Amino acid sequence: MEAYKRWVRRNKDYVHSMESLANGLTWLLPERFSDSEIGPEAVTSFFGIITAINEHIIETTPTQRVTGQAETSSFPYSLCITLLKDLETLVEVAAQQFYGDDRKWNFIAATEAIKVLVRLAMIKNSGYKMLLRGGETVYVEKGLDAVNYSKQRHGELVDPRSHNLKNHFQQTPWNLEGKALSALSRFGENARMVSERTWLSRVQHQQAIMEPPTLMVEKPSLSAFLSEKGVPGGLFVMGEVMFVIRPLLYVLLIRKYGTRSWFPWVMSLGVDLIGNGILSAVAVSRNSRKGPLFYLSNDERDELKRRKLLWALYLMRDPFFTKYTRKRLDHTRKLLEPVPVFGFFAEKLIELLVGAQTRYTYMSGS
Predict the structure, then answer these.
(1) Which of 78, 84, 306, 362 has a beta carbon 3.0–4.6 Å from 356's, enabling a disulfide?
(2) pLDDT above 80: residue 349
(3) What is the pTM of this model?
């Protein structure tokens, strides 16, 4: 296994190219969206698992560790989430073939329940941070901002000896000898401080190259987080929990009411809107001193935008798809059919979209 890890890390560009090619070719497999064919989905899941493992090996390269929040647990939560997402389509197809359309939702619900447990554990382990890409990306808190913030709070260190010497000569400002010695003292002090700062910066730079520092950040418990953030902190946690449990709630409602009912569709959309609205509101909330309670990083802001983009998948979910989207796609196919080149590609694209829509896992957004 160690030999394979070294090979992947040395040839990561080649590995990425082969993985992209293999994953792209899986969409061209015959009977990809057949109800009774699980072979293509098994091949797709296999390549997805291999890709996830290789990415995890590359990301955990010892020489590529970035300065950030130290992990208190070595359990690969992000890899676990990725593997579950790669396997859930195969589970859905196999359950549909062996148990039928109605009973397959039991297996899908079990898969979603496992993902909920892993994601909740990941939120707790991260110190109640926002999940990035549903937990597939590990949240790393940048250490540079924390260091700069600490410097701003504590200020620069001063030399007490130079401070006392300066006060001694400033007590006799009209003495000519005192003025000369004071000027000479200030000149020597400035030169020494510049020399010390230059030397110190060189030493720190060399140490940063040889051994990058790791900022140890203690991860708060839920009670400590809520006591620090107050009501907005509780709303933040509630918004993240709503985002995590939304897919499981949607599957359980489909299992009970069926895919033709509007109730699961509306409830899922409502949970998405409320949860994302809570997170957006908390992110811009301010305390009594007009300071923000939550400092969202660029990755977290991008995550909020990504979650909003996922709302477009509701156009591809039943019953909205059957009632509205499918008619639009058929109209577009008939409109572009006479065009020689565009008609062919439009027909293939619409065929892929319609086929992918039959799989819950492709349109789940979880």
Answers:
(1) 362
(2) yes
(3) 0.72
